[in-house]
Amino acid sequence: MAKIESETKATEELSIRQNMKPEIPVKGFDFIEFYVGNAKQARYYYEHGMGFEVVGYRGLETGERELCSYVLKQNNIKIILTSALSPNHPIADHVLSHGDGVKSIGFCVDDAASCYNTAIERGATSVSKPVACEDNHGKVISASVKTYGDTVHTFVQSNDYSGLALPGFKDINSWSGGTGLCTIDHVVGNVESEKMMEWVQFYKDVFGFHVFQGFNADDINTQYSALTSRVMANRAGTIKMPINEPAAGQKKSQIQEYLDFYSAPGVQHIAMSTNNIIATVEELRKRGIEFLSVPSAYYDTLKERVGAIEEDVQTLAKLGILVDREANGYLLQIFTKPVEDRPTLFFEIIQRKDGAKGFGKGNFLALFESLEREQDLRGNL
User: Fold this and answer.
1) Which of 62, 73, 74, 362 could form a disulfide with 324 if both were Cys (CB 3.0 to 4.6 A apart)?
2) Distance (Å, rounded) from C-alpha 60 to C-alpha 32?
């Protein structure tokens, strides 16, 4: 394990040295915006299922004639759910092509215009130029550029804004109680075969990000399928975005299944951190959130694989939580089943202990086998 960590650190340091572009100063994730078929119904799932507080609304009642949106928060996580109000709106086209999915990954910045201009100068394609929106709570400036598929990155400058939601939204307060979700840990994108390195280069050239960690088909595989992955990150570690592509295997990989049903590259899953994964998963299960199952045999040798941990193994087994040891600590993680009818988007719940920074390499086989069991049930393996 120490050798793996050493190799990972060496890869990261080499990537940083080779990366000559200064970083666009991104402070962290600001929001994730989903385009959905029915924002009101999606709101119910994320509020009552995932434990988010609804803090803002815009729609016909606020004078918005083309779309409807809800802003939801839980600790430092902000999501936006947006639907079209007519079949002729681009959002309706997006949902028709992809189903419900992530449209925009928002980045928190101090100067949205400067970040946008730098990205455009370095070759990014513009989606929306810097625009300022104001209300009695202050001002937010945002601008967007394209990334893989129909996904965009939005630079969000909200230093001068004190509202709960965003300008143009009516403040509301509706909450069924939280589930302990704290921050967005990482956001994972799936791209087509042979395209991963193109997007790695994009994030290096445009954003100045580096390869934090890499996994090849030998690392992530079963007897049936495989994938390759590179984790792009900023140097502060507040942004981590793995990019996956399918690798050759006997059967269809989970990445290819996603691409087939999403009809394009896009966000595969969002990892959200918690300070107490057992309490969080227990509460999410009570609320009806469905997770991938893990064979009981995984836990038979858990302590031999990962050493001493604070959590009770029987409790982890009951909940289906995976554990992986690193040089600096260990992490616990669990994955939901797809949260849409199409087998596309899902969520990861993760807790990092004692400074663990990785992505659960020791759990890849168990995770992939769980995913393949679900694929087989869907007739897609």
Assistant:
1) 362
2) 23
C-alpha 39/C-alpha 17 separation (Å) is 44
Report the pLDDT value the prediction gives residue 5, as an integer from 0 to 100: 46
* Total tally of structural domains belonging to the chain: 2
How far, in Å, CA of 260 to CA of 254, rounded?
10
Answer yes or no: do 188 and 103 share one domain: no
Q: How confident is the model at residue 221, as a pLDDT? A: 60
Alpha-carbon distance of 376 to 380, in angstroms, equals: 6
Domain, as residue range, for 43: 26-174
Instruction: Give the per-residue pLDDT at 249.
Output: 66
| Tokens 């087939």, located at residue | 260
Look-up of token digits 């999606």: 42
Q: Record the pTM.
A: 0.91
Alpha-carbon gap, residue 49 to 283, rounded angstroms: 9
> What local confidence, expressed as pLDDT, does residue 114 receive?
98
Q: Which of 174, 206, 226 is the last residue of a domain?
A: 174
The CA-atom distances, in angstroms, between 44 and each of 48, 54, 86, 269, 338 are: 6, 9, 21, 20, 17
235 plus 312 within the same structural domain: yes
Instruction: Tally Cβ neighbours within 10 Å of residue 129.
Output: 12
Residue of 210, 199, 197 whose CA lies nearest to 18: 210
The answer to whether the CB of 26 falls within 8 A of the CB of 350 is no
Q: Assess contact for 141 and 157: CB atoms under 8 A.
A: yes
Higher pLDDT, 110 or 164: 110
Q: Looking at per-residue confidence, does 53 or 9 come out higher?
A: 53
The continuous run of DSSP H or E covering 126 comes out as: strand 126-135
What backbone torsions phi and psi does residue 310 show, to the nearest 5 degrees? -80, -25
For residue 98, the surrounding DSSP H or E stretch is helix 90-98
